[in-house]
């Protein structure tokens, strides 16, 4: 009688053993797949360490406030558009943190990034100096000549309307002139890369390489 | 098949499978050697042995590829059991059985230990085609060789 059902019995035995083993094996596999590898721990530790260093530096700078602002808040960049030479960035601070439209955004080193255009309760949208709508009054630090900064020639910026007999030369520092409505005087913008003059023009145009590290933009200051 | 011959075959099959899975790391072949052997055991009227061997070799394969312990054991023992009731007289029926069970085995790819049931149609279809294809080819070759009587000669070893 038993011999007649030998296949069924053998199968049943394998099935039950297999299911029990599977239950144990499944749990073991799940645990091993969720286990954090030592290399990941190392990575996370380094990431936290670096972030901590950055934030400490940011806090020191904010407390010292050597920038020409009465209000200064730090914010984290949460979105960059486009990824290279961004025209627009979004930060994680908004109206609840005291951020308002037209506030000036600078890098932790004090280089000009752009201006706040739109604010929600928890975020703020910033047009950077690369944005095509940028028009800021700037001056060459050495010669004190004033021009208009435009962000229409990626990856460089242009300073237009410099006098034709300008003393500007490559390497000169360009800073904000303080004549524009929202930007205080003396914020670093970039350095002159080359100078060009167009035919039938009365002015020189300076090509500027921005000083702010847009490729490593993680935290910014927003001030007024 | 006596005990000694069974042991010899087991050794050959396990060696081939280890070569495929651990040395050559040909994942698309799956446990093809074990799969074919348990089918042949079933066709050779060693049905209980095929069920047990399906289970044990499946477990071995799980260990070999570091899969979920018990998954292949369960699948291969189910295949071995169902094979007992599958028509298996002619070559055509054997090839059909191989393809059907190959597809059945491939359906096991739906289960992922980390995410549960996942549907990856393309991957499953590719594995299913390759696994069943190799299986059918293997069955045809072995059947023809067996038919020619090459393996029944006493001095072949």
| Secondary structure: number of strands of chain A | 12
Sheet-strand content of chain B, in percent, reads: under 5%
CA(first)-CA(last) distance of chain B = 15 Å
Q: Roughly what is the average pLDDT of chain A, rounded to an integer?
A: 86
Quote the beta fraction of chain A: 35-45%
Oligomeric state of the chains?
A: heterodimer
Element order of chain A: H for helix, E for strand: HHEEEEEEEEEEEE
Most extensive interface: A-B, 20 and 23 residues
Helix content of chain A: 25-40%
Helical region count of chain A? 2
Residues in helix, % of chain B: 55-70%
SSE arrangement of chain B, N to C: HHHHHEEH
Low-pLDDT residue spans of chain A: none
Q: What's the number of structural domains of chain B?
A: 1
Q: Roughly how many Å is the radius of gyration of chain A?
A: 29 Å
> What is the CA-based Rg of chain B, rounded?
15 Å
How would you write the strand order of the largest sheet of chain A? Answer: 1-2-5-4-3-12
Number of helices of chain B: 6
Description:
The complex is a heterodimer of chains A (224) and B (157). Chain A has helices at residues 6-34, 38-64; strands at residues 72-81, 88-91, 104-106, 112-119, 124-128, 135-140, 146-153, 156-163, 173-176, 188-197, 203-210, 219-223. Chain A is α+β, with helices and mostly antiparallel strands and 224 residues long. The mean pLDDT of chain A is 86. Chain B is an all-alpha fold and 157 residues long. Chain B has one domain (3-148). In chain B, helix 1 (3-23) packs parallel to helix 3 and helix 4 (71-83) runs antiparallel to helix 5 (91-106).
Brief description of this entry?
The complex is a heterodimer of chains A (224) and B (157). Chain A is 25% helix and 35% strand.
Key features of this structure:
heterodimer; A: 224 residues; alpha+beta; 6-stranded antiparallel β-barrel; 6-stranded antiparallel barrel; 2 helices; B: 157 residues; mainly alpha
């Amino acid at each position: 009688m038993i011999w007649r059902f030998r296949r069924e019995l053998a199968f049943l035995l394998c099935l039950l053993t297999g299911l029990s083993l599977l239950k144990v094996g499944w749990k073991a596999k799940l645990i091993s797949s969720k286990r954090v590898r030592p290399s990941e721990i190392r990575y996370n530790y380094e990431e936290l360490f670096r972030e901590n260093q950055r934030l400490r530096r940011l806090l020191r700078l904010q407390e010292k406030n050597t920038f020409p602002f009465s209000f200064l808040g730090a914010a984290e960049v949460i979105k960059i558009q486009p990824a290279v030479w961004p025209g627009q960035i979004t930060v994680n601070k908004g109206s609840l943190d005291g951020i308002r439209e037209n506030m000036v955004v600078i890098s932790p080193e004090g280089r000009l990034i752009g201006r706040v255009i739109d604010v929600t309760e928890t975020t703020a949208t910033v047009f950077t100096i690369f944005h095509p709508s940028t028009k800021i009054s700037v001056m060459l630090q050495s010669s004190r000549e004033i021009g208009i900064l435009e962000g229409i020639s990626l990856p460089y910026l242009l300073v237009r309307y410099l006098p034709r007999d300008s003393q500007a030369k490559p390497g000169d520092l360009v800073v904000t002139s303080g004549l524009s409505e929202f930007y205080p005087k003396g914020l670093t913008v970039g350095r002159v890369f080359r100078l060009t003059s167009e035919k039938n023009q009365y002015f020189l145009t300076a090509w500027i390489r921005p000083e702010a590290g847009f490729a490593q933009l993680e935290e910014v200051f927003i001030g007024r | 098949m006596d005990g000694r011959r069974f042991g010899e075959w087991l050794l050959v099959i396990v060696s081939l499978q280890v070569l495929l899975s651990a040395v050559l790391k040909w994942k698309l072949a799956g446990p093809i050697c074990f799969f074919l052997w348990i089918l042949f055991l079933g066709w050779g009227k060693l049905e209980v042995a095929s069920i047990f061997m399906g289970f044990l070799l499946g477990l071995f394969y799980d260990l070999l590829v570091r899969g979920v312990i018990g998954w292949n054991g369960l699948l291969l023992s189910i295949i071995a059991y169902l094979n007992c009731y599958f028509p298996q007289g002619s070559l055509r029926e054997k090839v059909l059985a191989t393809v059907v069970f190959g597809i059945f085995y491939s359906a096991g790819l739906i289960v992922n230990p980390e995410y549960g049931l996942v549907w990856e149609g393309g991957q499953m279809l590719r594995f299913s085609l390759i696994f069943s294809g190799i299986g059918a080819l293997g069955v045809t070759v072995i059947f023809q060789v067996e038919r020619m009587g090459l393996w029944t000669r006493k001095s072949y070893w």
